[in-house]
Amino acid sequence: MNYQEITNSQRAEVLVKALPYIKQYYDKIVVIKYGGNAMINEDLKQAVMRDVVLLSLIGVKVVLVHGGGPEITQTLNKMHIESRFHNGLRVTDAETAQVVQMVLAGKINKSLVNFIENTGGKAIGLSGMDGHLLEAEVKDPELGFVGQVTSVNAKIITDVLDKGYIPVVSTVGCDKKGNVYNINADTAASCIAGALKAESLISMTDIEGILKDKDDPSSIIKVIDINDAQKLFDNGIISGGMIPKVQCCVDAIKYGVKKVFVIDGRVPHSIIIEMLTDEGMGTMFK
């Protein structure tokens, strides 16, 4: 059924059914970690920005935290700089750190702000370096300038929210000496959500959610209690690149976030489906 086939009464029914969820999230902070295919596909990007603007207009305080790995790799390739990875994280020397800053805090961040503004919202772009929003230190000497977050200056974000704007945060951090750090977007989002004591953190991924069998989409685990998460690690259900992502979800709950969702960013309007419908989607951590 397309939009033209929906009757006015059906549209009204959809809005009425969403009312309890709108009430639940009204004036609450929701952090959305934006990445994966939803950043690359233009149609999905439009759907995400519309979702973000819609949530803002109905009174949800949305904070958009983004990465941009593919664009960083493309830019490095154009500059004939080799991309190297260690345990799923980009090895970042001083030169690469400058490219990360340029791509994330410059190109991607400002294009997302522009996208939101053109979709009818109000946004302000921030990097983790602005006001030392994200202070960091070396995570692992083998990774170079890959940062482990040491503190979050949440007031910068709340000030922007209080003025009615959507903060769009790129995950570049710094230390007190001025060194620039590349910070994993999942890590940054969980730390920011925790510092804000957010109602929820929504992590957009390229999978349906956490699966018991990685090759079977129907084996999705709907709810994970963080006290049981270690069993999933031990049994190999969570493995490879999902380990740090799930650990960030667990950490966010420990930091004080009420609910964390891992959803499929390849599905148009997945944020709205999760937040404002009975069915929801993906995996919830609690």
Protein model, in words:
The chain has 286 residues and is α/β, with parallel strands linked by helices. It has helices at 8-25, 37-40, 42-57, 69-78, 94-118, 154-162, 185-196, 229-234, 242-255, 270-276, and strands spanning 29-34, 61-66, 85-86, 89-90, 123-127, 134-138, 147-152, 166-170, 172-174, 180-182, 200-205, 223-224, 259-264, 283-285. It has a single domain, classed as 3-Layer(aba) Sandwich (Carbamate kinase). The protein is built from ten helices and 14 strands. Strand 6 and strand 7 form a beta hairpin. The chain is globular and about 60 Å long. The two termini are 34 Å apart. The mean pLDDT is 90.
Features:
single chain, 286 residues, alpha/beta, Carbamate kinase, two-stranded antiparallel sheet, 10 helices, 14 strands, 21% strand, globular
